[in-house]
């Protein structure tokens, strides 16, 4: 299985970044690549708490990983360290073996120069997901996280 790793500086303190990673309303705005919309179905932000999110392509002709133009995934929060890290275990809701299986997603927060370096690590990427596309999605989402926090400090 493949691992991707992306970093992004956010001009906000680690505590604010941590809060935005665990806020379902914020997640709906930043954890979505361009050309898609997000819907948070459930989101229990505590260790062991479960979540379910769907991302739907704005263009219905683009096929998603789950059904139609939608990528749905669910998981749980495996570890939460305030101001430092969030670890999630997630998997796509699909019957396609090329997209199946648990993935571990880590948000590692490092205080740097008056802000936070966010390191996103995506482990066990299934073979049906191109690493370059995964990295692009991460870069877009972390850019939106930075824009959200830098425009409206938490």
UniProtKB/TrEMBL annotation:
Recorded superkingdom: Bacteria
Tell me the Pfam families matching this sequence.
Answer: AHSA1
Q: Which Gene3D superfamilies match?
A: 3.30.530.20
Which InterPro entries does the record match to this protein?
ASHA1/2-like_C, START-like_dom_sf
- Domain Activator of Hsp90 ATPase homologue 1/2-like C-terminal per the UniProt entry, residue ranges: 11-150
Please report which protein family the annotation says this sequence is part of. Answer: Belongs to the AHA1 family.
**What is the protein named?**
SRPBCC family protein
